[in-house]
Amino acid sequence: MNDYPYLYMNPYRNPYVHSGYRSHAAARQNRYILDKQIGDVNGDSIPDIVYLVGEKNEKPFYEKIKVIVQDGKTRLWYVIPLDSQYSMAYTPWLILASFANVNRNEIMVNLPVGGSGALTYYYVISFLNNQAEYILGPEQFMNLSDTLGFEVIYLDHYRVLVKSETLNQSYTLDISARKEVYEGSVYDKDGKLIKPQEGFVIDLPHLYPIKIDGSVPYKLEAQHDIAGTSHADRLGSIVLYWKYKGDNQSWVLDPKMFFVTLQ
After folding, report:
1. How far apart are CA 36 and CA 46, in angstroms?
2. Pairwise CA distance, residues 50 & 156, whole Å
3. Which one of 28, 58, 106, 136 counts the least CB within 10 Å of its CB?
4. pTM for the full model?
5. CA–CA separation, 49 vs 117, rounded Å?
6. What confidence tens digit (pLDDT) does each residue in 125-143 have?
């Protein structure tokens, strides 16, 4: 692969410097192409080639992951670095999908980092006119979910209330199948709470690009795990649907409600 003539800065810290693109083979032997997709991302109606690349040394995962775009018309290369805190993964991949405009694709990067919660970092990047703009970063949906004020409250007789005052919506989960786990610690033998108990919603969701009823552009389905007494005590998932509003450059709920699926 050629040396890359363009390096686009972004709102995150840029960890890549000129020494990162040495042309000799020794500097490149630990660099890998992790995924590749073809589609128009700069809006000129000509398919571009989008690569996801990273480095791998002694650690069992890829690091310093970045996006590289080859303009389908000019054949020039463009490098889009990612936040250095969120640029590693075990099995990274990307997808091209239209979130903001039906006439071009955005670049969605998925960086699974594992752990008990199957944590994944996500980016959605616009590359209109060969200019990188980050319309989604790894921490953005954590901040958005905070604004919805989810509460997880244990009730008597093996029930859990999941509610959002902001959305004026609630669900009640039946957790009686976990009676043997909870009896003596959360509930007494009569199914009464021993003391007030709350769970929590894990802020970093799993995100999936979807079309609802064939609608265009794509929306993002966000699945937030509902945890009970600990992260390992999964009760179900809150499901939200978000769409990107280009006029004010923000993600909004569509519709303004949530769903709950059982574990």
Report:
1. 16
2. 53
3. 58
4. 0.84
5. 32
6. 999 999 999 999 988 877 8
